[in-house]
Specification:
heterodimer, A: 572 residues, alpha+beta, FAD/NAD(P)-binding domain, eight-stranded mixed sheet, seven-stranded mixed sheet, B: 75 residues, mainly alpha, binds flavin-adenine dinucleotide
Chain lengths: 572, 75
Amino acid sequence: MSGTDFQTLRLAYARSADQDAAMPVHHPVVIVGAGPVGLALAIDLAQHGVRALVLDDDDKLSAGSRAICFAKRTLEICDRLGVGDRLVAKGVSWNVGKVHFQDELAYAFDLLPETGHRRPAFINLQQYYFEGYLYERARAMQGLEVRWKNRVVAVEPHGDRVVLAVETPEGTYRVEADYAVACDGSKSPLRTMLGQEAKGRVFHDRFLIADVKMNADFPAERWFWFDPPFHRNQSVLLHMQPDNVWRIDFQLGWDVDPDEERKPERVVPRVKALLGEDAQFEFEWISVYTFACQRMERFVHGRVIFAGDSAHGVSPFGARGANSGVQDADNLAWKLALVLEGKAPAALLDSYAAEREYAADENIRHSTRSTDFITPKTEVSRSFRDAVLKLAKEHPFARRLVNSGRLSLPATLAASPLNTPDGDAFSGTMVPGATIADAPVRTGGRDGWFLGHTGNRFTVVHFSAGGEPAPEVLAGLSALADAAIPVAAVVVVGKGTVSRAAQPGASAAAAAVAELDRAAVLEDAEALLAQRFDARDGTTYLIRPDQHVCARWRRFDPASIRAALARATCNT
Amino acid sequence: MSAMLNTDPNIADADDFYEALIDMHRDLTADESRLVNAKLILLLANHIGDRAVLRDAMARARDGVGAGRAAATPR
Ligand SMILES: Cc1cc2nc3c(=O)[nH]c(=O)nc-3n(C[C@H](O)[C@H](O)[C@H](O)COP(=O)(O)OP(=O)(O)OC[C@H]3O[C@@H](n4cnc5c(N)ncnc54)[C@H](O)[C@@H]3O)c2cc1C
């Protein structure tokens, strides 16, 4: 399986029975577009037991690398989707970055990631691997179908459903869905069909990407040049990918002819100017791109929902496109599942829009700032940029101002209507709306990770420092597991206390743990979990299926948990 | 409470300071001077640190110059 060449892979069109039906066949969810976002969403829905049909107009995965940086949060979501290990095994991890200004090294940084997390800050991996692994996972799932060479050519929205016209090599047919999700990329034909547009700032600049294959002994570091001697007045980025492929990104300015610039005979001298005259390399992919920072005003339009690049676009600096699109899918899947099961009103889908529009604004703000630093638009802006870079060589304060792309971090949805505001005092970053932090745990005598015990369902995490939660807590947890929207239970016990609790007959509570057997009992192996969650004995968190905090308290109170659950599912 | 921008006389030997400021630019082209000014502003801004003070200073610097409202109100 690992030997698949995802770049040359052709995904065959196959006739479906829907094409021979007299009336449009009904599907709960039709996803338009099998890019990273559409595939992630389809897998997530299938994991929730929702049948998903994916339509894609093409018969290939991503042409060329496009995205290469996949951030920690994306990897954590992919762990939940069952492909995290493959991504990390194939991807390149890096920590050292070097920033050059003109003729010299301005400074180097080491990200020195915080320990006690399963996943690194990010990996570098070609987008076709990312899509390929998702596709192979999708193909192995029940209730998930991908149809290649199926182009959506018309959308007919109704109050209670949506009908799509689909063009295939054998003619056009129609399908009906409760919801259609447009994951059809930045040019989004569905957006146009609905008369919508994405608005924002278009940058008048062009960038050349040359992904080259070579046996270089460069270290796995990110090298960024501002105004280097080999490419005056512009920026250059060099970044490593697996399979000896290197991403080289040259800023070109606006007044160049993109068709000329992507000719290999034009690109070779640029690459040699960077790598040296004798450098031996082959091109894997050459592309000239422009970009805009923009988004749709609203991501939900009745029965048509937009996710990924169709809904929002950012500059590539800071690697926020695919990363934020996968978070859209993460946010949407559980909500769609609850609505389709009739366990939540359609208003829950509006919270998808509100939360992800907020996140898109944050991503746009970050990537606009990076873009303005890398490509200053006025003389004075250029002077400040150069001043920062000059000072950075000697002064650490100036290094914090250098912005060649900020790490893509998940948005904290602090203003979300799904959150229950704190009633008790807490410190730290695990506020309602934040994505939860990972930490090492031990369970059943084995080492594991906290995040792996959360997600997919609502989860109550109850901290019980002494290792023996009170019997009424266990009874409460058990009742929550049987609720209409079931809430899974995780009991976190202090380091070294689990053996006591697990000893049969050691206490009534321990017996109850053994009996309950639905609560995962996790030992806080390095006491990091309690620290990261600012937890004391009794502290209780309610966690959403997409691993965001929804509410937290200093003691276990089933009535408060039920109220928070109702609020988080718009069942109030 | 964050400090206020101090606009009272605060430099001990004002003439001396002013001379040094102008001297700092001696023999520089306009471009070079703009770069030096930018470096100076960044160094001083970091020394001050307080965002409210910086915002206040930017607004006062921009006040009455050019068209439109002061742009110096970064979020
Ligand atoms: C040079 C470059 C570098 C980048 N680097 C990064 C990075 O490092 N990190 C990062 O996170 N992001 C990066 N990105 C952005 C990333 O590539 C995109 O954000 C990501 O591909 C968006 O995924 P998507 O699924 O929304 O859309 P797409 O990947 O564009 O997929 C859309 C799919 O919809 C299909 N489709 C379109 N119309 C129809 C239709 N009518 N019917 C059926 N199917 C249709 C298309 O064939 C396609 O398969 C980069 C982008 C570029 C260009």
